[in-house]
Amino acid sequence: MKKAMTAGALAVLVTGCAGVPVTVRDKVPPAADVAVVMFRDCTIQGQEDCDGSGLTAGSIFARVMASTPGKKAVPLDRPVGPKEPLSDADAAAYAKGKGYAYVINGEVQDYYRVAPFTFRSERAGLSVRVLRTSDASVASFFSDRDIANNLSTPDAIIEGMAKKVAKAM
Fold first, then answer.
1. What is the DSSP-derived secondary structure letter of residue 153?
2. 3-state DSSP call for residue 48?
3. CB within 8 A of 10, min separation 6: which ones?
4. How many other C-beta atoms lie within 10 A of the C-beta of residue 62?
5. CATH class of the structural domain 20-168
6. In whole angstroms, what is the distance from residue 13 CA to residue 11 CA?
7. In the Cβ-directed half-sphere of 25, how many Cα atoms lie within 13 Å?
8. Which position has the higher pLDDT, 60 or 2?
9. pTM of the prediction?
């Protein structure tokens, strides 16, 4: 009985480490230009690291997408304030007006940076949608929160998420 419980706990742990998949409804064509609107900052009261987190996350996504073979990505300034919501329809219209076929719109849900060697965990969480600008429909979406030891950074966590999305698109 004890071995079965240990094996079950190990299976849950390994499954949890596998990460959340990117849901892809339609692949982005390799030649398509993809705009990345800077993400909305996280809005956790009293969490100072939230300020600027959307700019950081959006920049990481744009860089990772642009450096992925077969992908093109361009960062776009956020047309609303850093903590204000930007609907998918508005993001699609904004990017379409600039001549892009696809746009990535997202929100930072958690962003927490700790001092090294404090034995607390780094955290990052995102919700991201890849949209067709022609009709604002969702081509792909991804939402995840992750933690890492304090020798990592929230930026490294976000970069891993961006690579996962880029690979799936």
1. -
2. helix
3. none
4. 21
5. alpha beta
6. 5
7. 10
8. 60
9. 0.83
